[in-house]
Amino acid sequence: xxxxxxxxxxxxxxxGATVAFNCTYSNSASQSFFWYRxxxxxxxxxxxSVYSSGNEDGRFTxxxxxxxxxxxxLIRDSKLSDSATYLCVGSGAGSYQLxxxxxxxxxxxx
Amino acid sequence: DADxxxxxxxxxxxxxxRIMLECSQTKGHDRMYWYRQDxxxxxxxxxxxxxxxxxxxxxxxxxxxxxxQAQAKFSLSLxxxxxxxxxxxxCATSADSTYEQYFGPxxxxxxx
Lengths: 110, 112
Prior knowledge:
The complex is a heterodimer.
Chain A: E1 4-6, E2 11-14, E3 19-25, E4 33-38, E5 45-50, E6 55-57, E7 60-65, E8 70-75, E9 84-91, E10 98-100, E11 104-109
Parallel strand pairs in A: 2-11
Antiparallel strand pairs in A: 1-3, 3-8, 4-5, 4-9, 6-7, 7-8, 9-10, 9-11
Chain B: E1 4-7, E2 10-13, E3 19-25, E4 31-38, E5 42-51, E6 54-57, E7 64-70, E8 73-78, E9 87-94, E10 102-103, E11 107-111
Parallel strand pairs in B: 2-11
Antiparallel strand pairs in B: 1-3, 3-8, 4-5, 4-9, 5-6, 7-8, 9-10, 9-11
């Protein structure tokens, strides 16, 4: 079983919409989680870190639910520039390796 | 200037050739990583290095080797390239005691 799983999408949403992605992880010992953003044929870029109770950065909110072993990313007031693939990432237990989900593709349409 | 650079950015090579991909960083990070990305498979770890004298195999190290020439340089070699090594290769770095990784722009490798 893949350690980090997410819906590949695509999610096609109109500008201004709110969209949410979920991701589940199987390694209950994972300590840290992240959302990365990847534009087509570009490198992944760190979008947000998600620790214990989650965090918010402008239009983006990430939540962590350890009991159910999932994390979420909420994007409010979607912009055309938010179109990208969003990678859910979890750390391994006791190591600094990261496990990447396959990504969820978002397309924001005018 | 980019903090993590990779050369070459694109490479086409033939089956059986030896090829080296290079990564340099100016972030001052001790930890460096090599990943490959294939459509539908996501990012997979090939090798990682926590300092110049520490090299570790990742999830898919067969057919690859690495060299950590200095804190700032980490090279990936394909000893005898085969077509199923056609992929997008990324180098990444991280600071000690943190999980956040920062990626280079990638090398698109095609093996014919």
